[in-house]
Amino acid sequence: MNLFDKISEDIKAAMLAKDAVRRDTLRGVKKEFLEAKTSKAGNGELSDDDAMKIIVKMVKKGKDAADIFISQNRQDLADEELAQVAVLEGYLPKQMTDEELTSAIKDIIAQTGATSAKDMGKVMGVASKSLSGKADRKSVV
Fold first, then answer.
1. Contact indicator for 82, 62 with CB cutoff of 8 Å
2. How far is it, in rounded angstroms, from Cα 42 to Cα 141?
3. Which CATH number goes with the domain that contains 30?
4. What is the pLDDT of residues 54-102, one digit of tens each?
5. Is the model's pLDDT at 141 over the cut of 60?
6. Tell me, what DSSP letter sits at residue 79?
7. Could you tell me if 45 and 64 lie in one domain?
8. CA distance linking residue 101 with residue 98, whole number of Å
9. Are residues 34 and 83 both part of a single domain?
10. How far is CA 96 from the centre of its chain?
């Protein structure tokens, strides 16, 4: 079952469970998926990789919004955003620990043969592809 179908099934389950936060969050995800499928670049298809990128983007957006709400002393709104982020993170691969991330980046540096800061672009290109969804982009940089 691809990610699009899993989200659709989970929306039904959330509706039956009367879990409003999960239902509304997943409806937002499905809306983004449908927009990506029907866009000119989408060609009516949505791969799991593209779906994962959409979820990662939504998690980042939710965390950023929560930070803004916290800075404005609106903890109630921040809690709503963080609850939605928690639902979304359930669809992402297990996040890497700092030690695992360091080890993976060292392996990537060895693979690309990077020796100086000039080779940072090569390393970041490979790292962003191989670590997508497994580590926060800020952690990789």
1. yes
2. 29
3. 1.10.1510.10
4. 998 999 999 999 999 999 999 999 999 999 999 999 988 777 777 877 8
5. no
6. H
7. yes
8. 5
9. yes
10. 13
- Domain hosting residue 116, numbered range: 98-140
Residue 42, SS3?
Answer: coil
Output the CA torsion 81→87→89→91 (10° steps): -150
Produce one character per residue of 81-114: b if its CB has 16 or more CB atoms within 10 Å, e if not: bbebbebbbebeeeebeeeebeebbeebbeebeb
**Is the distance from CB of 93 to CB of 107 less than 8 angstroms?**
no
Q: Which two tokens stand for residue 85?
A: 């982020």
For 8-65, write each residue's pLDDT tens digit: 999 999 999 999 999 999 999 999 999 988 887 767 788 888 888 899 899 999 999 9
Distances (CA, A) of 24 to 58, 90, 127: 13, 15, 33
Residue 132: per-residue pLDDT: 67
Alpha carbon separation from 47 to 44, 58, 65, 70, 92 (Å, rounded): 10, 17, 27, 35, 15
DSSP 8-class letter at 141: -
